[in-house]
């Protein structure tokens, strides 16, 4: 039996778990949530977790910690925490055979080939090349992207900042929206994630209001104005993107239009990523909005812009496209990477 440690470290909370690996099967033995700010560093937290949940003499064979921030040369500085991490020092401090720090979005790549049917939902049927590149993008606070390639029999995850590519409008509406957003945000250039993210949905709704649209629920219009005036993190600030999505489900005309525009931009970005990476191994949609908008991601409002890639339409149409719906996908993927490290150690 192989014992693995998986972690998902963020500025607010950290999830740690022990997994048992027998053959190809991963089983979560125990899991605990920590408030990140209550600890002086990751090392003390890991030692406490192992003391509480693994008091025996057996060594943890492999560990992977997904971290909210970039990782370079095995070192990471966590966003919103005064922590600097070094994977070699952590492995020695906690007596772990092999430990790796991986960006918390890129780590998902390691879990994608091992997902079960209840961890994902098919958006488009297709035939995957088992040795082909894979890719994932996910709209949430921002727009995460990552890709994976196979080399020497191993999967390698490659982080990406593709969400910061410049937004390319596809039609007259998006051209007008681009100009308004640049002015509204005081920017010379507009990145894709300014549109394709939770905040982007709120901005699209504001733009439609600016164009003279009227929502038949007046309190939503007021919430939009309050959301615009209050900076992120302000106590009591309305969650405009969630309100727009809810009102869309209830038949709101302007909210429905905002969601349609957002889905079109999202689908186009997904197709662009699949082309850029030639993701013949498959494309996944993750992030915090995947479950919330699952039925909409199955619709032509998302899929048609994804497929509409000119001469490469046939390539995109033949790809398997799935939505990642497991809330513990980060931990599971970190465990998959830990298993790889244990096998190579």
Short description:
With 345 residues, the protein is of the alpha/beta class. Helices cover 38% and strands 24% of the residues. Strand 1 and strand 2 form a beta hairpin.
Please state the overall shape, judged from the principal axes of the Cα atoms: globular
Report the CATH C-level class of the largest domain: Alpha Beta
Query: What oligomeric assembly is this protein in?
Result: single chain
Mean pLDDT: 93
User: Uncertain regions: pLDDT < 50 for 5+ in a row?
Assistant: none
How many helical elements? 12
Distance between the termini: 15 Å
Q: Main β-sheet: number of strands, strand sense, barrel status?
A: 6 strands, mixed
Q: What percent of residues are in strands?
A: 15-25%
- CATH architecture field of the largest domain: 3-Layer(aba) Sandwich
Helix content: 25-40%
Strand order of the largest sheet: 9-14-13-10-11-12
Beta strand count: 14
Radius of gyration from the CA trace?
Answer: 21 Å
Number of domains: 2
Structural class of the secondary structure composition? alpha/beta
Helix-strand topology string = EEEHEEEEHEHEEEEHHHHHEHHHEH
The CATH topology of the largest domain comes to: Hexokinase, domain 1
What can you see in these coordinates?
This protein is an alpha/beta fold. The protein has two domains: 2-104 and 327-344, 2-Layer Sandwich (Nucleotidyltransferase, domain 5); 164-324, Hexokinase, domain 1 (3-Layer(aba) Sandwich). It has twelve helices and 14 strands. It has helices spanning 42-53, 87-94, 108-111, 172-185, 198-210, 218-229, 240-249, 253-277, 294-297, 300-307, 313-317, 329-344, and strands at 2-9, 13-22, 25-35, 62-67, 71-72, 75-77, 84-86, 99-103, 120-124, 134-139, 143-151, 154-160, 282-286, 321-324. Strands 9-14-13-10-11-12 form a six-stranded mixed sheet. A five-stranded mixed sheet has the order 3-2-1-4-8, with helices on both faces. A three-stranded antiparallel sheet has the order 5-6-7. The longest helix is centred in the C-terminal third of the chain and has 25 residues, at 253-277. The radius of gyration is 21 Å and the shape is globular. The mean pLDDT is 93.
């Amino acid at each position: 039996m192989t014992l693995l440690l998986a972690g998902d470290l963020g500025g607010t909370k950290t999830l740690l778990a022990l997994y048992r690996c027998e053959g190809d099967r991963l089983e979560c033995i125990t899991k605990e949530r920590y408030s990140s700010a209550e600890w002086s560093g990751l090392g003390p937290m890991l030692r406490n977790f192992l003391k509480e949940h693994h008091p025996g003499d057996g060594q943890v064979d492999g560990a992977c910690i997904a971290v909210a921030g970039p990782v370079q040369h095995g070192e990471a500085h966590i966003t919103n925490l005064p922590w600097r991490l070094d994977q070699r020092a952590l492995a020695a401090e906690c007596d772990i055979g092999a430990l790796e720090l991986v960006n918390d979005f890129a780590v998902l790549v390691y879990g994608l080939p091992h997902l079960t049917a209840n961890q994902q939902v098919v958006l488009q049927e297709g035939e995957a090349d088992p040795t082909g590149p894979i890719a994932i993008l996910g709209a949430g606070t921002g727009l995460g992207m990552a890709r994976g390639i196979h080399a020497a029999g191993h999967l390698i995850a490659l982080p990406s900042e593709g969400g910061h590519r410049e937004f390319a409008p596809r039609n007259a509406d998006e051209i007008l929206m681009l100009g308004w957003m640049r002015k509204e945000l005081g920017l010379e250039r507009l990145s894709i994630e300014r549109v394709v993210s939770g905040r982007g949905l709120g901005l699209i709704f504001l733009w439609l209001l600016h164009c003279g649209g009227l929502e038949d629920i007046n309190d939503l219009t007021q919430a939009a104005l309050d959301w615009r005036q209050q900076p992120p993190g302000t106590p009591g600030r309305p969650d405009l993107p969630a309100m727009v999505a809810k009102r869309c489900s209830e038949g709101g005309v302007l909210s429905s239009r905002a969601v349609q525009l957002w889905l079109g931009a999202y689908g186009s970005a997904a197709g662009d990523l699949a082309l850029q990476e030639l993701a013949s191994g498959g494309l996944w949609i993750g992030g915090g909005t995947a479950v919330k908008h699952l039925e909409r991601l199955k619709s032509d409002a998302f899929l048609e812009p994804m497929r509409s890639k000119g001469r490469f339409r046939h390539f995109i149409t033949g790809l398997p496209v799935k939505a990642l719906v497991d809330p513990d996908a980060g931990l599971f993927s970190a465990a998959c990477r830990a298993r790889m490290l244990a096998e190579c150690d």
